[in-house]
Backbone:
Protein backbone atom coordinates (compact mmCIF):
# COMPACT_ATOMS: atom_id res chain seq x y z
CA UNK A 1 0.00 0.00 0.00
CA UNK A 2 1.48 3.40 -0.86
CA UNK A 3 2.41 5.62 2.06
CA UNK A 4 0.55 8.57 0.54
CA UNK A 5 -2.73 8.59 -1.39
CA UNK A 6 -2.38 9.26 -5.10
CA UNK A 7 -2.81 12.86 -6.16
CA UNK A 8 -6.47 13.57 -6.81
CA UNK A 9 -7.42 16.27 -9.30
CA UNK A 10 -9.71 19.01 -8.06
CA UNK A 11 -13.35 18.97 -9.03
CA UNK A 12 -14.74 21.83 -11.05
CA UNK A 13 -17.88 23.46 -9.71
CA UNK A 14 -19.76 22.66 -12.91
CA UNK A 15 -19.48 18.89 -12.45
CA UNK A 16 -22.53 17.68 -10.55
CA UNK A 17 -23.23 13.92 -10.44
CA UNK A 18 -26.57 12.82 -11.80
CA UNK A 19 -27.17 10.48 -8.87
CA UNK A 20 -27.68 13.20 -6.27
CA UNK A 21 -31.18 12.99 -4.76
CA UNK A 22 -33.42 16.06 -4.94
CA UNK A 23 -33.74 18.16 -1.78
CA UNK A 24 -36.50 16.90 0.52
CA UNK A 25 -39.80 18.78 0.57
CA UNK A 26 -39.45 19.33 4.31
CA UNK A 27 -36.86 18.77 7.02
CA UNK A 28 -36.38 15.15 8.07
CA UNK A 29 -37.60 14.16 11.49
CA UNK A 30 -34.31 14.08 13.34
CA UNK A 31 -34.89 13.08 16.99
CA UNK A 32 -34.00 15.61 19.67
CA UNK A 33 -31.55 14.66 22.42
CA UNK A 34 -32.99 12.78 25.34
CA UNK A 35 -33.70 14.80 28.47
CA UNK A 36 -34.80 13.88 31.97
CA UNK A 37 -38.36 14.96 31.20
CA UNK A 38 -38.49 13.52 27.68
CA UNK A 39 -41.07 10.95 26.71
CA UNK A 40 -40.06 7.48 25.55
CA UNK A 41 -38.56 6.94 22.09
CA UNK A 42 -40.79 7.05 19.07
CA UNK A 43 -41.72 3.66 17.64
CA UNK A 44 -39.22 2.38 15.11
CA UNK A 45 -40.18 2.34 11.46
CA UNK A 46 -38.72 0.44 8.55
CA UNK A 47 -36.75 2.62 6.17
CA UNK A 48 -35.03 2.05 2.85
CA UNK A 49 -32.34 4.01 0.98
CA UNK A 50 -33.64 6.48 -1.62
CA UNK A 51 -31.05 5.26 -4.07
CA UNK A 52 -28.62 2.38 -3.94
CA UNK A 53 -25.82 3.34 -6.30
CA UNK A 54 -24.24 6.29 -8.04
CA UNK A 55 -22.46 4.84 -11.09
CA UNK A 56 -21.13 8.22 -12.13
CA UNK A 57 -19.19 8.36 -8.87
CA UNK A 58 -17.70 4.88 -9.20
CA UNK A 59 -20.09 3.48 -6.59
CA UNK A 60 -21.02 0.56 -8.82
CA UNK A 61 -19.86 -2.68 -7.16
CA UNK A 62 -20.63 -6.07 -8.72
CA UNK A 63 -23.62 -7.54 -6.88
CA UNK A 64 -22.82 -10.36 -4.51
CA UNK A 65 -24.31 -13.72 -5.28
CA UNK A 66 -26.35 -14.89 -2.29
CA UNK A 67 -24.45 -17.41 -0.24
CA UNK A 68 -26.63 -20.29 0.94
CA UNK A 69 -26.65 -20.79 4.70
CA UNK A 70 -24.15 -23.35 5.90
CA UNK A 71 -25.81 -26.58 6.99
CA UNK A 72 -26.36 -26.82 10.73
CA UNK A 73 -23.54 -29.02 12.01
CA UNK A 74 -25.82 -30.57 14.63
CA UNK A 75 -24.61 -32.73 17.45
CA UNK A 76 -22.00 -31.61 19.97
CA UNK A 77 -21.07 -28.41 18.11
CA UNK A 78 -24.51 -26.98 18.92
CA UNK A 79 -23.82 -26.99 22.65
CA UNK A 80 -22.68 -23.82 24.46
CA UNK A 81 -18.94 -23.61 25.14
CA UNK A 82 -17.82 -25.34 28.33
CA UNK A 83 -15.09 -24.18 30.70
CA UNK A 84 -12.80 -26.73 29.05
CA UNK A 85 -13.66 -25.33 25.61
CA UNK A 86 -12.75 -21.81 26.70
CA UNK A 87 -9.46 -23.06 28.14
CA UNK A 88 -8.59 -24.74 24.84
CA UNK A 89 -9.54 -21.70 22.76
CA UNK A 90 -7.45 -19.32 24.88
CA UNK A 91 -4.51 -21.72 24.82
CA UNK A 92 -4.80 -21.86 21.03
CA UNK A 93 -4.85 -18.06 20.76
CA UNK A 94 -1.73 -17.82 22.93
CA UNK A 95 0.07 -20.02 20.40
CA UNK A 96 -1.22 -18.14 17.37
CA UNK A 97 -0.80 -14.58 18.69
CA UNK A 98 2.97 -14.32 17.95
CA UNK A 99 2.28 -15.27 14.32
CA UNK A 100 -1.04 -13.45 14.02
CA UNK A 101 -0.11 -11.69 10.76
CA UNK A 102 0.63 -14.97 9.02
CA UNK A 103 -2.40 -16.75 10.48
CA UNK A 104 -4.85 -14.05 9.45
CA UNK A 105 -3.23 -13.72 6.01
CA UNK A 106 -3.75 -17.47 5.58
CA UNK A 107 -7.38 -17.10 6.64
CA UNK A 108 -8.06 -14.41 4.04
CA UNK A 109 -6.23 -16.36 1.33
CA UNK A 110 -8.42 -19.41 1.99
CA UNK A 111 -11.56 -17.27 2.13
CA UNK A 112 -10.95 -15.34 -1.07
CA UNK A 113 -9.76 -18.35 -3.07
CA UNK A 114 -12.65 -20.54 -1.99
CA UNK A 115 -15.29 -17.79 -2.05
CA UNK A 116 -14.17 -15.06 -4.46
CA UNK A 117 -17.56 -13.32 -4.28
CA UNK A 118 -16.72 -12.32 -0.69
CA UNK A 119 -13.61 -10.37 -1.80
CA UNK A 120 -15.79 -7.45 -2.94
CA UNK A 121 -16.80 -6.84 0.70
CA UNK A 122 -13.26 -5.82 1.67
CA UNK A 123 -11.00 -2.86 0.84
CA UNK A 124 -8.07 -3.33 -1.51
CA UNK A 125 -5.53 -2.75 1.30
CA UNK A 126 -6.00 -5.39 4.00
CA UNK A 127 -3.42 -4.37 6.65
CA UNK A 128 -5.88 -2.70 9.03
CA UNK A 129 -8.51 -5.37 8.42
CA UNK A 130 -6.12 -8.13 9.53
CA UNK A 131 -5.43 -6.30 12.81
CA UNK A 132 -9.13 -5.78 13.47
CA UNK A 133 -9.94 -9.43 12.85
CA UNK A 134 -7.45 -10.79 15.36
CA UNK A 135 -8.38 -8.18 17.99
CA UNK A 136 -12.04 -9.15 17.61
CA UNK A 137 -11.15 -12.83 17.88
CA UNK A 138 -9.18 -12.27 21.06
CA UNK A 139 -11.99 -10.31 22.71
CA UNK A 140 -14.69 -12.74 21.63
CA UNK A 141 -12.79 -15.85 22.68
CA UNK A 142 -11.74 -14.45 26.04
CA UNK A 143 -15.27 -13.28 26.79
CA UNK A 144 -17.19 -16.25 25.47
CA UNK A 145 -17.75 -17.48 29.02
CA UNK A 146 -19.78 -14.33 29.73
CA UNK A 147 -21.98 -13.95 26.64
CA UNK A 148 -24.15 -11.26 28.25
CA UNK A 149 -21.10 -9.02 28.74
CA UNK A 150 -19.98 -9.80 25.20
CA UNK A 151 -23.36 -9.25 23.59
CA UNK A 152 -23.07 -5.46 23.18
CA UNK A 153 -19.64 -5.73 21.54
CA UNK A 154 -20.62 -8.54 19.19
CA UNK A 155 -23.96 -6.90 18.43
CA UNK A 156 -22.21 -3.75 17.26
CA UNK A 157 -19.79 -5.90 15.26
CA UNK A 158 -22.67 -7.72 13.58
CA UNK A 159 -24.36 -4.43 12.65
CA UNK A 160 -21.06 -3.12 11.26
CA UNK A 161 -20.64 -6.23 9.11
CA UNK A 162 -24.16 -5.75 7.81
CA UNK A 163 -23.10 -2.28 6.69
CA UNK A 164 -20.16 -3.82 4.86
CA UNK A 165 -22.50 -6.15 2.95
CA UNK A 166 -22.13 -9.32 4.99
CA UNK A 167 -25.00 -11.80 4.60
CA UNK A 168 -26.05 -14.47 7.04
CA UNK A 169 -24.81 -17.14 4.65
CA UNK A 170 -21.28 -15.72 4.73
CA UNK A 171 -20.72 -16.74 8.34
CA UNK A 172 -20.47 -20.43 7.48
CA UNK A 173 -17.61 -20.12 4.95
CA UNK A 174 -15.84 -17.61 7.20
CA UNK A 175 -15.95 -20.05 10.11
CA UNK A 176 -14.56 -22.95 8.08
CA UNK A 177 -11.68 -20.87 6.71
CA UNK A 178 -10.93 -19.51 10.17
CA UNK A 179 -10.69 -22.98 11.65
CA UNK A 180 -8.46 -24.14 8.79
CA UNK A 181 -6.06 -21.22 9.34
CA UNK A 182 -5.97 -21.79 13.09
CA UNK A 183 -5.32 -25.51 12.58
CA UNK A 184 -2.30 -24.75 10.43
CA UNK A 185 -0.70 -22.30 12.85
CA UNK A 186 -1.58 -24.12 16.08
CA UNK A 187 0.37 -27.20 15.01
CA UNK A 188 0.26 -30.22 17.30
CA UNK A 189 -2.08 -28.44 19.72
CA UNK A 190 -4.90 -28.62 17.19
CA UNK A 191 -6.85 -31.73 18.14
CA UNK A 192 -10.39 -32.92 17.59
CA UNK A 193 -11.23 -31.54 21.04
CA UNK A 194 -9.76 -28.13 20.15
CA UNK A 195 -11.69 -28.02 16.88
CA UNK A 196 -14.95 -28.80 18.67
CA UNK A 197 -14.22 -26.04 21.21
CA UNK A 198 -13.65 -23.52 18.41
CA UNK A 199 -16.82 -24.60 16.60
CA UNK A 200 -18.85 -24.02 19.75
CA UNK A 201 -17.30 -20.61 20.39
CA UNK A 202 -17.64 -19.52 16.78
CA UNK A 203 -21.27 -20.67 16.70
CA UNK A 204 -22.00 -18.56 19.80
CA UNK A 205 -20.18 -15.51 18.41
CA UNK A 206 -21.74 -15.71 14.94
CA UNK A 207 -25.26 -16.28 16.27
CA UNK A 208 -25.07 -13.11 18.40
CA UNK A 209 -23.78 -11.11 15.42
CA UNK A 210 -26.43 -12.47 13.07
CA UNK A 211 -29.25 -11.78 15.52
CA UNK A 212 -28.07 -8.19 16.01
CA UNK A 213 -27.78 -7.60 12.26
CA UNK A 214 -31.25 -9.00 11.58
CA UNK A 215 -32.72 -6.90 14.39
CA UNK A 216 -30.99 -3.79 13.08
CA UNK A 217 -32.26 -4.44 9.55
CA UNK A 218 -35.85 -4.07 10.74
CA UNK A 219 -35.42 -0.37 11.62
CA UNK A 220 -32.32 0.97 9.89
CA UNK A 221 -30.62 0.87 6.48
CA UNK A 222 -27.06 -0.50 6.39
CA UNK A 223 -25.85 2.92 5.23
CA UNK A 224 -27.09 6.33 4.23
CA UNK A 225 -26.21 8.38 1.16
CA UNK A 226 -25.24 11.98 1.83
CA UNK A 227 -24.80 14.81 -0.67
CA UNK A 228 -22.08 17.36 0.07
CA UNK A 229 -23.87 20.71 0.00
CA UNK A 230 -21.00 22.89 1.29
CA UNK A 231 -17.22 22.50 1.45
CA UNK A 232 -15.22 25.19 3.24
CA UNK A 233 -11.43 25.09 3.55
CA UNK A 234 -10.51 26.54 6.94
CA UNK A 235 -6.77 25.87 6.52
CA UNK A 236 -4.78 24.15 3.74
CA UNK A 237 -5.32 20.83 5.54
CA UNK A 238 -8.70 21.30 7.23
CA UNK A 239 -12.15 21.47 5.65
CA UNK A 240 -15.64 21.77 7.07
CA UNK A 241 -18.17 19.69 5.14
CA UNK A 242 -21.93 20.04 5.31
CA UNK A 243 -23.78 16.93 4.18
CA UNK A 244 -27.47 16.37 3.42
CA UNK A 245 -28.47 12.74 4.04
CA UNK A 246 -30.99 11.12 1.75
CA UNK A 247 -33.34 10.49 4.67
CA UNK A 248 -33.67 11.28 8.37
CA UNK A 249 -30.42 10.48 10.13
CA UNK A 250 -30.78 9.92 13.89
CA UNK A 251 -27.78 10.73 16.09
CA UNK A 252 -26.78 12.46 19.30
CA UNK A 253 -24.29 15.26 19.85
CA UNK A 254 -20.92 13.72 20.72
CA UNK A 255 -21.33 10.69 18.46
CA UNK A 256 -19.48 9.77 15.26
CA UNK A 257 -20.04 7.86 12.05
CA UNK A 258 -17.98 6.15 9.37
CA UNK A 259 -17.64 7.88 6.02
CA UNK A 260 -16.83 6.27 2.70
CA UNK A 261 -15.94 8.26 -0.40
CA UNK A 262 -16.60 7.27 -4.02
CA UNK A 263 -12.89 7.57 -4.82
CA UNK A 264 -11.80 4.85 -2.36
CA UNK A 265 -14.64 2.29 -2.23
CA UNK A 266 -14.70 0.08 0.88
CA UNK A 267 -12.19 2.31 2.69
CA UNK A 268 -13.96 3.85 5.68
CA UNK A 269 -12.87 6.17 8.48
CA UNK A 270 -14.52 7.59 11.60
CA UNK A 271 -15.54 11.25 11.80
CA UNK A 272 -17.44 13.01 14.58
CA UNK A 273 -20.48 15.17 14.03
CA UNK A 274 -19.53 18.82 14.57
CA UNK A 275 -23.04 20.03 15.33
CA UNK A 276 -26.03 18.93 17.34
CA UNK A 277 -29.01 17.59 15.35
CA UNK A 278 -30.50 20.42 13.28
CA UNK A 279 -34.10 21.02 12.19
CA UNK A 280 -33.02 20.90 8.53
CA UNK A 281 -31.32 17.53 9.02
CA UNK A 282 -27.92 18.68 7.71
CA UNK A 283 -24.74 17.12 9.13
CA UNK A 284 -21.43 18.91 9.70
CA UNK A 285 -17.93 17.36 9.80
CA UNK A 286 -14.49 18.84 10.48
CA UNK A 287 -11.87 16.89 8.53
CA UNK A 288 -8.09 17.21 8.65
CA UNK A 289 -6.04 15.68 5.84
CA UNK A 290 -3.48 13.43 7.50
CA UNK A 291 -0.45 11.76 6.00
CA UNK A 292 -1.42 8.56 4.19
CA UNK A 293 -5.06 9.28 5.03
CA UNK A 294 -6.90 8.16 1.92
CA UNK A 295 -10.35 9.19 3.12
CA UNK A 296 -9.35 12.41 4.87
CA UNK A 297 -7.28 13.63 1.91
CA UNK A 298 -10.13 12.88 -0.48
CA UNK A 299 -12.62 14.75 1.70
CA UNK A 300 -10.38 17.80 2.12
CA UNK A 301 -8.77 18.05 -1.34
CA UNK A 302 -11.24 16.34 -3.69
CA UNK A 303 -14.79 16.57 -2.36
CA UNK A 304 -17.04 19.37 -3.58
CA UNK A 305 -20.74 20.27 -3.47
CA UNK A 306 -22.72 17.66 -5.36
CA UNK A 307 -20.52 14.71 -4.44
CA UNK A 308 -22.18 11.81 -2.66
CA UNK A 309 -20.72 10.05 0.37
CA UNK A 310 -21.79 6.96 2.26
CA UNK A 311 -22.46 7.17 6.00
CA UNK A 312 -22.82 4.38 8.49
CA UNK A 313 -25.13 4.63 11.50
CA UNK A 314 -24.20 6.89 14.39
CA UNK A 315 -22.09 5.31 17.12
CA UNK A 316 -20.25 6.25 20.28
CA UNK A 317 -21.18 6.87 23.89
CA UNK A 318 -19.71 10.32 24.40
CA UNK A 319 -23.17 11.84 24.84
CA UNK A 320 -24.59 14.07 27.55
CA UNK A 321 -26.57 12.75 30.45
CA UNK A 322 -29.00 15.57 31.18
CA UNK A 323 -29.99 13.96 34.46
CA UNK A 324 -26.42 14.34 35.74
CA UNK A 325 -25.90 17.85 37.06
CA UNK A 326 -22.11 17.65 37.29
CA UNK A 327 -20.11 20.52 35.81
CA UNK A 328 -18.33 19.67 32.56
CA UNK A 329 -14.78 19.84 31.23
CA UNK A 330 -14.49 19.54 27.44
CA UNK A 331 -10.95 19.08 26.06
CA UNK A 332 -10.45 19.11 22.29
CA UNK A 333 -7.30 19.07 20.18
CA UNK A 334 -7.41 20.21 16.54
CA UNK A 335 -10.41 18.80 14.68
CA UNK A 336 -11.20 16.89 17.88
CA UNK A 337 -13.14 19.99 18.82
CA UNK A 338 -15.95 18.80 16.49
CA UNK A 339 -17.91 16.57 18.91
CA UNK A 340 -17.37 19.08 21.71
CA UNK A 341 -18.88 21.85 19.58
CA UNK A 342 -21.90 19.61 19.13
CA UNK A 343 -22.16 19.05 22.90
CA UNK A 344 -21.99 22.78 23.58
CA UNK A 345 -24.68 23.39 20.94
CA UNK A 346 -26.92 20.82 22.62
CA UNK A 347 -26.44 22.50 26.00
CA UNK A 348 -27.15 25.90 24.48
CA UNK A 349 -30.34 24.60 22.87
CA UNK A 350 -31.71 22.63 25.79
CA UNK A 351 -30.22 24.41 28.78
CA UNK A 352 -27.19 23.79 30.96
CA UNK A 353 -29.43 23.10 33.97
CA UNK A 354 -27.19 25.07 36.33
CA UNK A 355 -23.93 23.32 35.41
CA UNK A 356 -20.82 25.21 34.31
CA UNK A 357 -18.90 24.15 31.21
CA UNK A 358 -15.22 24.80 30.51
CA UNK A 359 -13.77 24.12 27.08
CA UNK A 360 -10.00 23.76 26.75
CA UNK A 361 -9.24 23.90 23.03
CA UNK A 362 -5.71 23.36 21.73
CA UNK A 363 -3.80 23.49 18.44
CA UNK A 364 -0.27 24.14 17.26
CA UNK A 365 -1.04 27.34 15.35
CA UNK A 366 -3.64 30.04 15.87
CA UNK A 367 -5.16 29.48 12.42
CA UNK A 368 -5.81 25.85 13.36
CA UNK A 369 -8.22 26.97 16.10
CA UNK A 370 -10.92 27.08 13.42
CA UNK A 371 -13.77 26.47 15.87
CA UNK A 372 -12.74 29.20 18.29
CA UNK A 373 -14.89 31.99 16.86
CA UNK A 374 -18.05 29.92 17.18
CA UNK A 375 -17.19 28.89 20.73
CA UNK A 376 -16.50 32.48 21.76
CA UNK A 377 -19.78 33.60 20.24
CA UNK A 378 -21.61 31.00 22.33
CA UNK A 379 -19.61 32.00 25.41
CA UNK A 380 -20.67 35.62 24.96
CA UNK A 381 -24.32 34.55 25.03
CA UNK A 382 -24.11 32.01 27.87
CA UNK A 383 -22.44 32.80 31.18
CA UNK A 384 -22.13 29.08 32.03
CA UNK A 385 -19.59 28.58 29.22
CA UNK A 386 -15.86 29.38 29.53
CA UNK A 387 -13.46 28.87 26.61
CA UNK A 388 -9.68 28.51 27.12
CA UNK A 389 -7.73 28.34 23.83
CA UNK A 390 -4.17 26.96 23.98
CA UNK A 391 -1.30 27.14 21.47
CA UNK A 392 1.62 24.70 21.52
CA UNK A 393 3.53 25.64 18.35
CA UNK A 394 4.86 28.74 16.58
CA UNK A 395 3.49 31.94 18.04
CA UNK A 396 2.73 30.48 21.44
CA UNK A 397 3.52 32.87 24.28
CA UNK A 398 4.04 35.90 22.03
CA UNK A 399 2.53 39.28 22.90
CA UNK A 400 0.05 38.88 20.04
CA UNK A 401 -1.08 35.47 21.31
CA UNK A 402 -1.44 36.73 24.87
CA UNK A 403 -3.43 39.74 23.66
CA UNK A 404 -5.73 37.35 21.76
CA UNK A 405 -6.32 35.36 24.96
CA UNK A 406 -4.30 32.32 23.82
CA UNK A 407 -2.44 30.40 26.52
CA UNK A 408 0.83 28.64 25.74
CA UNK A 409 1.73 24.98 26.24
CA UNK A 410 0.72 21.47 25.31
CA UNK A 411 -2.90 20.65 25.92
CA UNK A 412 -2.52 18.02 28.70
CA UNK A 413 -0.22 20.30 30.71
CA UNK A 414 -2.60 23.22 30.18
CA UNK A 415 -5.47 21.12 31.53
CA UNK A 416 -3.43 20.36 34.64
CA UNK A 417 -2.56 24.04 35.04
CA UNK A 418 -6.16 25.24 34.69
CA UNK A 419 -7.50 22.77 37.30
CA UNK A 420 -8.63 21.54 39.73
CA UNK A 421 -11.45 19.64 38.03
CA UNK A 422 -12.85 17.85 41.06
CA UNK A 423 -16.47 16.78 40.66
CA UNK A 424 -16.59 17.40 36.92
CA UNK A 425 -17.30 15.04 34.07
CA UNK A 426 -14.64 15.29 31.36
CA UNK A 427 -15.10 14.70 27.62
CA UNK A 428 -11.89 14.29 25.60
CA UNK A 429 -11.51 14.28 21.80
CA UNK A 430 -8.58 14.70 19.44
CA UNK A 431 -5.36 12.88 18.56
CA UNK A 432 -5.16 9.57 20.48
CA UNK A 433 -1.86 10.46 22.16
CA UNK A 434 -3.31 13.73 23.44
CA UNK A 435 -6.44 12.02 24.72
CA UNK A 436 -4.41 9.39 26.59
CA UNK A 437 -2.06 11.95 28.16
CA UNK A 438 -4.94 14.20 29.19
CA UNK A 439 -6.79 11.24 30.67
CA UNK A 440 -3.68 10.42 32.70
CA UNK A 441 -3.45 14.00 33.92
CA UNK A 442 -7.05 13.93 35.12
CA UNK A 443 -6.69 10.54 36.78
CA UNK A 444 -3.60 11.71 38.69
CA UNK A 445 -5.54 14.82 39.72
CA UNK A 446 -8.16 12.61 41.36
CA UNK A 447 -10.91 12.54 38.74
CA UNK A 448 -12.47 9.02 38.74
CA UNK A 449 -12.10 7.00 35.54
CA UNK A 450 -15.88 6.77 35.15
CA UNK A 451 -15.96 10.57 34.92
CA UNK A 452 -13.56 10.65 31.94
CA UNK A 453 -15.23 9.95 28.62
CA UNK A 454 -13.78 9.41 25.17
CA UNK A 455 -14.30 7.03 22.27
CA UNK A 456 -10.77 5.79 21.60
CA UNK A 457 -11.53 2.15 22.41
CA UNK A 458 -14.71 2.14 20.33
CA UNK A 459 -12.86 3.20 17.18
Residues:
Amino acid sequence: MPSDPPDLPPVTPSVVPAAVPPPPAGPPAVPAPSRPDAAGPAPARAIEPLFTSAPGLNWAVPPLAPVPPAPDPGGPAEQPPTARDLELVRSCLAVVEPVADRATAQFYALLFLGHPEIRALFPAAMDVQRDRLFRALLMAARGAGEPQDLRAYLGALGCAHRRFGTLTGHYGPVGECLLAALARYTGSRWTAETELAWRRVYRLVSSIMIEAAERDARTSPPWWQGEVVAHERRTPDVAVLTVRPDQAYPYRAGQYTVLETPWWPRVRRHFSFASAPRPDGLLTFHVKAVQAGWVSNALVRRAAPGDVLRLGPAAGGMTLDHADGADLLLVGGGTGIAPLLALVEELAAYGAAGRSVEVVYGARRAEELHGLAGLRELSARHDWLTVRPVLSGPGAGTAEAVAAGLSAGRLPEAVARFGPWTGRTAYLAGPPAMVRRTSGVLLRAGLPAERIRHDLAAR
